[in-house]
Automatic annotation (TrEMBL):
PANTHER family reported for this sequence: BLR8292 PROTEIN (PTHR36455:SF1), PTHR36455
Name listed for the protein in its UniProt record: Transposase
Superkingdom field: Bacteria
NCBIfam families assigned: IS66_TnpB
InterPro entries: Transposase_IS66_Orf2 (IPR008878)
Length: 117
């Protein structure tokens, strides 16, 4: 698994895309439909209609990279389908790519240590 660097934004496209699109087609989709810059260093994650495949478009500074994953069984857990995009953390993206239901995971609040009197 390839982990995104710290500070990178992960943008999920909530609508399914045509999985015949490659680097250039997805970059054009990012510019036209999402109104974002595909060369900004963010990760753009796209899903198939069946939710069993994802593509990730990334700019590494010298070229566009395209990553593809297909689950052999099950489906990826995705936010509700609506127009637009959702930004998630790299940890949420990692859970999504593992096929886990990341929407059910909650961050536990950490209590500050109590000062001694």
């Amino acid at each position: 698994m390839i982990a995104p660097p710290t500070g990178v934004k992960v943008v999920l496209c909530t609508q399914p895309v045509d999985f015949r699109k490659g680097h250039d087609g997805l970059a054009a989709f990012v510019q036209e439909a999402l109104r974002r810059d595909p060369f900004c260093g963010d990760l753009f994650v796209f899903r198939s209609k069946r939710l069993d495949r994802v593509k990730i478009l990334a700019w590494d500074g010298s070229g566009l990279c395209l990553f593809y994953k297909r689950l052999e069984t099950g489906r990826f857990t995705w936010p509700p389908v609506r127009d637009g995009v959702v930004t998630v953390s790299p940890a949420q993206m990692a859970m999504l790519l593992e096929g886990l239901d990341w929407s059910r995971v909650w961050r536990r609040s950490v209590e500050a240590p109590k000062a001694a009197c």
